[in-house]
Design brief:
It is globular, with a radius of gyration of 23 Å. The protein has 15 helices and 21 strands. It is an alpha/beta fold and 501 residues long. The C terminus is likely disordered. Helix 5 crosses helix 6 and helix 12 runs parallel beside helix 15. The relative contact order is 0.14. Strand 13 and strand 14 form a beta hairpin. Bound molecules: 3-acetylpyridine adenine dinucleotide. 3-acetylpyridine adenine dinucleotide binds next to helix 4.
């Protein structure tokens, strides 16, 4: 059986960044397993028309791999995917990536102090650490609508766009008005015969302050790295200004609310349509979206916004609760992802024989520092519980976690630990503190439902503090928070609690 020191799951921003930083730290014995055929993760999977980042690329990129040639302040998906590929190609780590292979199951072997991992190609490996970068937005969620399986036309999810279908001149329905849908709709409105947009909850959409970089700026980015660093820093702090409005007092977000309402007024003249698309909850409760083209598209003759709930789908139409039947050729579901139950969690079995999904059944997703989980020694999760953001760059959070994992590995090597596992009480107090802070946030109290909350109303996805606080808290691995084991003989070192179920 093959043994690697570190097994990384996923080759998106998280997995690739992890591989690069492991290599830099001299930890060259690793393997990255990726179910897709190349690097890129979510930026490879989401190829729908209009796909682009809603965080400026100067910030939404690795700090260690600045890209002087971003064409726009908010880059389109192909540019981001190309950037990730370029970083991967020049990193010298791709020889340790195995593509088109999925992790079927990983189980901790306490006697051997190893993860035993079964892969979809039938092979089995062991690894000392298991580092998951499998992504928070990787598993599309299909809507459970009566009759949808009997629809005779084409149906696909926004994250699995079917490029073989030419939508020109077609009657199309889009279900959902989240970040994906508001990018898709203006593009489809240009080509389809008719578009019905099924809106359950109106989003707040502020103007997209996008522009092309000038030749002079690009020249400066290339030759004066400090200039690019200054842009990044300015964007970082601009984004961080949102945090108090989200986490302390929603009224502080009034400038954004004014922008959003102004955007509606500018894009839509019809009072009835304006009323339909005006949200009835606090801004920030759901992700704030950005677009200059969404409202004008809704106001066009091609698009109808339907707010009556969907009752069923027939072979060729969507039927709403009022009995109206709207015939269509193609159905596009932009209905989001499984976010509060990570799909990888049912594939990882810990020290007690329970899977991560079973362990989280009662509590919802919990971890220590969003990264390690009691009962799961040597498991590190990038983009783990409560590490998501509503306002800034996930790459910043990912890099903070990567640094923590690298330091954990360095500590294990230096001090001769075969495993580390967070104490239950440490993990509990970390999460109690998060949930206490969460009560004040607009995400929990802003009067909306969102993918941030699980079915018990717990927010297990977002980070409720400044991102620089997250970075500071994860700056150094903290062995005192962990039960540790030494390899031979297998003997727990004196710890506060010892390894217990
Ligand atoms: O998904 P969503 P998304 N019947 O969950 C509706 C990131 N992202 O793919 O609001 C009818 O936000 C649902 O309605 P409601 C970003 O973090 C980033 O758009 O629940 N409607 C909602 O309108 C984002 O937040 C970029 O009432 C149904 C929509 O579907 C995350 O991905 C771009 C329904 C789902 O919205 C997810 O965005 C794109 C049903 N049965 C995405 N079920 C960037 O630019 C669901 N809905 C970085």
């Amino acid at each position: 059986m093959t043994h690697v020191k570190h097994l990384v799951i996923g080759a998106g921003f998280a997995g690739l960044g992890m591989a690069i930083k492991l290599d830099e730290a001299g930890e060259s014995d690793f393997l990255v397993i990726e179910k897709d055929a190349g690097v890129g993760g979510t930026w490879r999977a989401n190829t729908y028309p209009g796909a682009a980042c809603d965080v400026p690329s100067q910030l939404y990129s690795y700090s260690f791999a600045p890209n002087p040639s971003w064409s726009m302040s908010f880059s389109p998906q192909p540019e981001i995917e190309a950037y990730i590929k370029r970083v991967a190609d020049s990193s010298g780590v791709l020889d340790r990536f195995r593509f088109e292979t999925a992790v079927e199951h990983a189980a901790w072997q306490d006697d051997d102090q190893l993860w035993q991992v079964d892969l979809s190609d039938g092979s089995r490996l062991t690894a000392q650490t298991l580092i998951s970068g499998s992504g928070g937005l990787s598993e599309p969620k299909l809507p459970d609508i009566d009759g949808i399986e009997g629809f005779q036309g084409e149906v696909f999810h926004s994250a699995r766009w079917n490029h073989d279908i030419d939508l020109t001149g077609k009657r199309v329905a889009v279900i959902g008005t989240g970040a994906s849908a508001i990018q898709i709709v203006p593009e489809l409105a240009k080509v389809v015969d008719h578009l019905d947009l099924y809106q359950r909850t109106a989003p707040y959409v502020i103007p997209r302050n996008d522009r092309r970089y000038t030749g002079l700026e690009k020249l400066a980015f290339r030759h004066l790295p400090l200039v690019q660093r200054a842009y990044r820093t300015a964007i970082y702090w601009g984004r961080e200004m949102y945090v108090p409005g989200f986490t302390l007092e929603p009224k502080l977000a009034w400038p954004a609310k004014r922008l959003a309402l102004g955007n509606i007024a500018k894009g839509i003249k019809d009072p009835e349509l304006r009323a339909k698309v005006t949200p009835d909850y606090e801004i920030g409760c759901k992700r704030i979206l950005i677009s200059n083209t969404y409202y004008p598209a809704l106001a066009s003759d091609t698009v109808d916004v339907v707010t009556d709930p969907i009752a069923k789908i027939t072979g060729d139409a969507v039927v709403t609760a009022d009995g109206t039947e709207r015939p269509i050729d193609v159905l596009i579901v932009a209905t989001g992802f499984f976010t509060t139950e990570q799909p990888i969690a049912s594939r990882i079995t810990g020290r007690t024989g329970a899977t991560l999904a079973e362990t989280w059944r009662e509590t919802g997703m919990v971890a220590y520092k969003g990264t390690t989980v009691h009962g799961f020694p040597n498991l590190f999760q990038l983009v783990g519980p409560n590490t998501g953001l509503g306002h800034s760059s996930m790459v910043f959070m990912i890099e903070s976690q990567i640094a923590y994992v690298v330091d954990a590995i360095r500590t294990m090597d230096r001090d001769g630990y075969s495993s580390v596992e967070p104490h239950r009480d440490v993990q509990t107090s970390w999460n109690d503190d998060l949930q206490r802070r969460m009560q004040r946030t607009v995400w929990n109290s802003g009067g909306c439902a969102s993918w941030y909350l699980d079915d018990q109303g717990r927010n297990t996805t977002l980070w409720p503090r400044a991102t620089f606080t997250f970075r500071r808290l994860l700056a150094q691995f903290d062995p005192s928070a962990y039960a540790v084991s030494t390899p031979d003989p297998i003997q727990p070192l004196p710890t506060r609690e010892g390894v217990s179920a």
